[in-house]
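FAQ
Q: What does a multi-component entry look like?
A: The components come first, one per line:
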Amino acid sequence: MLRVALRLQKPTSGTVSFANNVTIGYVPQKIHIDPTFPMTVRRFLALAKIKQKTPFDVLLAEVGAKHVLDSPLHTLSGGELQRVLMARALIRNPNLLVLDEPVQGIDVHGQAELYSLISRVRSERDCAILMVSHDLHLVMSSTDRVLCLNQHICCSGTPEVVVSDLAYANLFGKHAASHLALYVHEKQHEHNHECSHVEVK
Amino acid sequence: MIDDFLLRALIGGLGVALVAGPFGSFVVWRRLAYFGDTLSHSALLGVALGFLLNINLTLGIFIICQTLAILLFVSQYQRQLTSDTLLGILSHGSLSLGLVALAYMKDVRIDLVGYLFGDILAISSTDLIWIYGAGGVALLGLMWIWKPLLSITIHEDLARVEGLPVDRTNWLFLGLIALTVAIMMKVVGMLLVTALLIIPAATARRFASTPEMMAILAIVIGCLSVVGGLLGSYHYDTPSGPSIVVAGCLFFMLSIIIPRK
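Then the predicted structure of the entire assembly, as tokens:
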């Protein structure tokens, strides 16, 4: 779904349309940097094809990764890399930030920090967030609009609407639907369904 | 003082090292070693084509390498076979087809060993023009696409979303690699082309902190390998192409042993 929205893949049916003034900042799920590739964070940020005014250290400070400016990319930890990718996306001053499973493979503490970073970016930069996530707890607690995907769009709407939707109950089990707060983590691992959520300002 | 053929060999070898450094770096970064092998293995088919059409053999090799590069690029969109299987089929298929085609041409007698391991001492002035002409084009082309190619090497989708011409850049890069492989043939031969691409680049890695620095160091190490290999080949009467690769391997081992500051 994300690939279609980013126009990386043609939709099998339907069309993708954007408002005229949309600037997308894309944060990929993971990037693999071969250790043979000598690329520092500074250089990586400089490769973004845009003349930007904010100095890189200010930008990295915003995402909390100021200390890695001159580190080689392949030595960064998962959390650091996510922050750097976020900084790279922010260079473009996006009004739509697209995130693909931003916290995958990151420990619980780091996840919480990243999520608070994302919501800070949203409020400070006044920028819409489109994010794919398997984390039901997050999806239900801090989003404006949810799209529940399993091959097709099962249900969509505000979290309250989605939770009470029959399709959602079928997807995750009635039990989960009514006791979401309690059972969210077990259910998340049992079902490998993709839940995307969209935040719209 | 210095023999003509040796001078030509030196000039040709240095020219090839100059082109191989930057391209070799990308081959290492993008894990294209097997891809380079496949292109060079098809070179024999190019030689056959050269004889058949009565054109310059380097041109024949270039045409075949280019065709193969296009074939590989297009076939990466199919999902049935993994890319290494596909590369294996094309690599050995074209090598065998080349051998069969050459055997079929009764009036063509070639020095097979020369094509397999290079014949740098037999480099002619025409070869030199090819090496510097085509090599110059390849280097200029690479400089032109250098920045987008770096972005694509980091993350292709990210480059696409940021609006870089990903497909066009990849196409150009493949075409330029095919050109590089074609001119490297004469110096180290089809079996050793990949070695001259990746060994100097891999040696340079430990001492480089930027992509540009690695490419330039790879050029320097490649040139040193050519000089060392030719000297060794001259003094000990060893085959020149393999001697160059042996010299490169020695530099690589040295680079591992030298402690890092």
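Q: Is there any commentary attached?
A: Sometimes. For this entry: Residues 135-201 of chain A form one domain.
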